[in-house]
Design brief:
Elements lengths: L2 H4 L7 E6 L11 E6 L4 H14 L3 E4 L5 E3 L4 E7 L7 E4 L2 E5 L4 H10 L2 E2 L11 H7 L2 E2 L2 E2 L4 E7 L5 E5 L18 E8 L1 E2 L2 H18 L6 E4 L9 H7 L6 E2 L2 E3 L6 E4 L5 H19 L8 E3 L3
Parallel strand pairs: 2-5, 3-5, 4-19
Antiparallel strand pairs: 1-2, 6-7, 7-13, 8-14, 9-10, 11-12, 11-13, 15-18, 16-17, 17-18
Bound molecules: flavin-adenine dinucleotide.
Length: about 300
């Protein structure tokens, strides 16, 4: 069945039985049946149409910095947007960019153009599309505060522009998380500022991250969402999990909110660790810790 896809798109953008560990910052994940690395929107449309016609499961991702892919891998097609689709246009205080560009690259471009508002994105390793889907944020900033318009492909293959409340932004969530929408491009409104001050702020954030986060190990960032009224890291630390290991996965000794791939961890090791932390938080503190990372793949 997949051979039909190769008649529609060039073989060089298709990978068969591709290990997802090469495409996630966790460096974890079994193989996906077919991976497609589209170079333009037309190719995304063709793949989405093919999957729709043959009822093949389709998932779209950016650069895999907020994903845990299970050990059995992903059945169907995974479309990776983070290698291409990086066009950016800056017009006054507005930036219009394609979903595949890295958020941090975009933040640097904004700084060079004396545009303020994306400083928070320094050090967030995701794509712009992934950042919109997750409403990524840090240091009191988030995507919600800068995004004014999102163009997404609907499951029907048509494209739709979302504005204002239609985007459903909330803490680490958006409407694009739940409806099989594919984020294609994003319009943001920033404000003119002083380029040196913007860059200084970004350097400060980068320093902070280096000091506090275990950037020397593969991870997917903070594993859990912030429970109302708390921070996940201190809760996990209080429960005694700092440095705790399951197989090759470890709760970072530097920042308990991160689980790191310490030594060839399997997805099951991470899932086991997550389950133990959640159980302890519920039983000992009555707190529900919900994962921020997206767990995907065959169970
Ligand atoms: C060291 C480190 C630090 C981090 N710090 C932060 C932080 O400070 N704040 C923060 O919010 N996050 C942080 N993250 C998490 C992550 O970088 C962000 O959530 C990022 O926005 C995810 O982008 P991505 O392209 O990697 O998304 P992916 O991991 O590729 O995908 C995430 C989800 O979005 C979906 N998706 C991705 N792109 C699209 C698209 N174009 N259309 C439709 N669906 C899509 C995927 O299917 C998946 O469900 C950190 C991660 C690491 C490793």
């Amino acid at each position: 069945m997949y051979s039909g896809l190769l008649k529609l798109i060039p073989a060089e953008i298709v990978k068969i039985n591709e290990p997802m560990q090469y495409h996630t910052t966790f460096r974890i994940g079994g193989p996906v049946d077919i991976m497609v690395l589209p170079r333009n929107v037309e190719e995304i449309k063709i793949v989405a149409g093919f999957c729709r016609q043959y009822e093949i499961p389709l998932m779209v991702f950016g650069v895999g910095s907020n994903m845990l892919v299970r050990d059995k891998g992903i059945r169907g097609v995974a479309v990776k947007l983070g290698n291409n689709l990086k066009d950016v246009a800056i017009c006054g205080e507005e930036i219009h960019a394609e979903a595949g560009i890295r958020l941090s690259e975009l933040a640097r471009k904004a700084a060079l153009n004396s545009l303020s508002g994306l400083e928070f994105a320094e050090g967030i390793p995701g794509s712009l599309g992934g950042a919109v889907v997750m409403n990524a944020g840090a240091y009191d900033g988030d995507m919600k505060s800068v995004v004014i318009e999102v163009e997404a492909m609907l499951p029907s293959g048509e494209s739709q522009v979302f504005i204002g409340d239609e985007m459903g932004f909330n803490y680490r969530t958006s409407i694009f998380q739940n409806h099989d929408y594919i984020v294609i491009s994003v319009k943001m409104r920033l404000r003119h500022g002083n380029s040196d001050e913007i860059k200084a702020k970004m350097r400060e954030y980068a320093r902070n991250r280096k000091e506090k986060q275990p950037l020397e190990y593969p991870s997917a960032g903070s594993v859990f969402k912030r429970p109302p009224g708390y921070y996940a890291g201190p809760i996990i630390e209080k429960l005694g999990f700092k440095g705790y290991r399951c197989g090759g996965a470890e709760v970072s000794a530097k920042h308990a909110g991160f689980i790191i791939n310490r030594d060839n961890a399997q997805a099951n090791d991470v899932l086991e660790l997550i389950a133990r932390i959640q159980k302890a938080a519920r039983e000992k503190l009555g707190v529900d810790l919900l994962p921020e990372i997206r767990v995907v793949g065959e169970e």
